């Protein structure tokens, strides 16, 4: 059984993430304003609606900036995934495929050696074929590959050899 080749793939911030959250926040404010004008609502109901909008909008913007990936590289060596930052420091990560769109992959990853702190939560990235077209096939193969030392991959290889 063959494994995916080593791959280094650039991952940047999802540029449209902040714009999307801001657009939804603005749409929510416009919708809330239209509701207020058309229904004639006043008093405590309006104040509670705007307070809920403020809290949810602030939380959405904070989570988007916190959960999005910083610029760096996802690196596959064959035995697992690593995150390579701008200083070329590598740290082992656990990568999980969330959505495969053919030319884009939505993935999450979290540091494998951290048990607490801000790095405990997964980071999210949208990886596109247009970032590195020549390495796209290798990257997709690596996403679907199991590490070389994984027992499941060696068991399936043994069962294939027995046939």
Care to describe what's here?
- With 163 residues, this protein is an alpha+beta fold.
- Helix content is 43%, strand content 24%.
- The chain has helices spanning 15-39, 44-67, 136-144, 151-162; strands spanning 7-11, 72-76, 81-84, 90-100, 104-111, 123-128.
- The longest helix has 25 residues, at 15-39.
- It is elongated and about 65 Å long.
Strand order of the largest sheet: 1-2-3-4-5-6
Overall spatial form: elongated
One letter per element, helices H and strands E, the order comes to EHHEEEEEHH
Helix/strand-derived category reads alpha+beta
Spans of 5+ residues with little confidence (pLDDT < 50)?
A: 156-163
Number of helices: 4
- Estimated share of beta-strand residues: 15-25%
Overall pLDDT: 81
Spell out the key features of this protein:
163 residues, alpha+beta, six-stranded antiparallel beta sheet, 4 helices
Helices and strands in order:
Elements: E1 7-11, H1 15-39, H2 44-67, E2 72-76, E3 81-84, E4 90-100, E5 104-111, E6 123-128, H3 136-144, H4 151-162
Antiparallel strand pairs: 1-2, 2-3, 3-4, 4-5, 5-6
In short:
Helices cover 43% and strands 24% of the residues. With 163 residues, the chain is α+β, with helices and mostly antiparallel strands. Helix 1 packs antiparallel against helix 2 (44-67).
